[in-house]
Amino acid sequence: MRDYRTKICNVLIIGSGGAGLRAAIAAHENGCEVMVIGKRIRNDAHTTLAAGGINAALGTVDPEDDWIQHFVDTYQEGYNIGDPKTVEILVKDAPNRVQELVDWGAPFARTSDGKLDQRYFGAHTYRRTCYAGDYTGRAILNTLVNKVEELQIPIIDMTYVSRLLVNTQNGQKQCFGAMAFDINSGDRTVFLSDSVVLAAGGHTRIWRRSSSRRDENTGDAMRLALNAGCRLSDMEMVQFHPTGMVHPESLAGTLVTEAVRGEGGRLTNSKGERYMEKYDPVRMELSTRDRVALANYNEIHEGRGTENNGVYLDISHVDKGIILEKLPRMYRQFMESQMLDISKHPMEVAPTAHYSMGGVMVDPETHSTGVIGLYAAGECTSGVHGANRLGGNSLAEILVFGKIAGDEAADFSTTLDLQTRNRAIIQEAIKELDELTTTGEQLARPLQRAVRNIMWNYCGVLRSGEGLNKGLEELMKVKEASADVDVRPSAEGFSDLALALDLLGSIDSAEATIRAAIERRESRGAHQRSDFIDTDNSENVNYVIEIVDGKQVVTRSNVPPLPEELEEPMQAYEDLSVDGRLLE
């Protein structure tokens, strides 16, 4: 008797966050039968944690804004290694996607005359960030979930994808679905589809301090893509937010919004020195995210940190009424977690891994991956952000490219005369789950902790060739140990199996990140090397990772040239002041 069920659809979406849901809506509107798989429950994808806002050059507050200036800000902030065509598509289409959300009921803030309000974020020339209080991501996700439910598109929660099903014929790889299991019951399902959209998030949870929650953003999307035959790009480019909580341990890495500094918060070390004077005497605490993160890291690393390996962020000199009005979430967060009144005492903070700028390489116009029938969208992809992400672009990205991926996946489905199937490939995926579900000497959680410590110690805010090579050596030991993980289904469900796969995703994405970081012998944006402190124009390239004969291999790829019409605006770019700008 067969020990799995089969479910069939035209377009399969892996990931129930904003990118996945927008792809599902697009594919459905193209007449396809669509299914969405999520490893968390709906309404709880990582998209909910995006607080600040979504970018679109609407010009409602600053009429001078346009898509060209949005392009310039995005490309410049990415240190010139983003993909120009991908960025152009993003900035041109973002206004349409925001207006669409409004039509679907998203509760964006409005000006007194009823237009969509827009505010500054760091490195924006004009006010172009639409927002819904400090819960924009949740508002967007709720709007998308409501739309998906209205269209009666099925979302299958608590379901973990272990492998993409890829058939190779005449040297061509074609994706025809995915192998998955229910995290609670362990029931296995082979999802057969004409095309697949991968929208399963980033890999920032693999650092010891991370703004991602437990068991999310563990690099599983990168692992699935690599094993399917895709290439990854810019994996070394990981954005570290300057201020995350340092204790209690369960909340280490939780964001402390940059609005605290925007409202006058001051950074000091254990000696009481307001040290940003050394790093950026003009902008001080309102310097760029990568510069403040590096400053905080240095103070801690050089022995001027707090007892919990942080620095102090103090806003107690500001009137308590202002704090409660402008920063109610932060006041509540510290009071509930530490019994700390931030209107009287400083907070302890430290850099925290926040956003994956790199990921699966995709075609700018179709978001196809190079594997026939497989598309990708959202934080698991590369192309938009280059070496640093412009605040507010991530929510625009999931909508613009989620729609494109869904449209293209649907178009591909309609071109097929025959559906691809391969029983041998399905059996291999089943065998992998069987072999993982065995007793062993190792536990997944401690090995995950080992990966997170390796990445924090050797591939964090500041890196060196010696440290990166040491980190890779340590990671290979964890990789060897991961072959003997104890996985025992119980009354608690099959979370052991999910953790074992999370571990494999963490190891694969960590290896790709370290290997790319070793090759990039310069400092650029989020990638800072103590042994190569300058930015090198010969490194205006993307580092690409793929599997060759079972091993990860790194190559260089040249960044495509700028379109002619954008060369002059790029040359006219000037550094911006920080006046009135939020930075998150």
Description of the molecule:
The protein is of the alpha/beta class and 584 residues long. It has helices at residues 18-29, 67-77, 84-103, 136-150, 220-228, 259-262, 276-279, 289-304, 320-326, 328-338, 393-415, 423-436, 444-458, 465-481, 495-519, 564-571, and strands at residues 5-14, 34-37, 54-55, 129-130, 155-156, 159-169, 172-182, 188-198, 232-233, 238-245, 266-268, 311-314, 347-356, 359-360, 374-376, 462-463, 528-529, 541-548, 551-558. 54% of the residues are buried. α14 packs antiparallel against α15 (495-519).
Q: Fraction of residues in helices?
A: 25-40%
How many strands appear in the DSSP assignment? Answer: 19
Indicate the mean pLDDT.
Answer: 92
**Which shape, going by the Cα principal axes?**
globular
Radius of gyration (CA) equals 23 Å
Provide the descriptors you would attach to this structure in a database record.
single chain; 584 residues; alpha/beta; seven-stranded mixed β-sheet; four-stranded antiparallel β-sheet; 16 helices; 18% strand
Give the arrangement of secondary structure elements.
Blueprint: E1 5-14, H1 18-29, E2 34-37, E3 54-55, H2 67-77, H3 84-103, E4 129-130, H4 136-150, E5 155-156, E6 159-169, E7 172-182, E8 188-198, H5 220-228, E9 232-233, E10 238-245, H6 259-262, E11 266-268, H7 276-279, H8 289-304, E12 311-314, H9 320-326, H10 328-338, E13 347-356, E14 359-360, E15 374-376, H11 393-415, H12 423-436, H13 444-458, E16 462-463, H14 465-481, H15 495-519, E17 528-529, E18 541-548, E19 551-558, H16 564-571
Parallel strand pairs: 1-2, 1-8, 2-5, 8-15, 16-17
Antiparallel strand pairs: 3-4, 6-7, 7-8, 9-14, 9-18, 10-13, 11-12, 12-13, 18-19
Helix pairs in contact: 1-4, 1-11, 2-3, 3-11, 5-15, 13-14, 13-15, 14-15
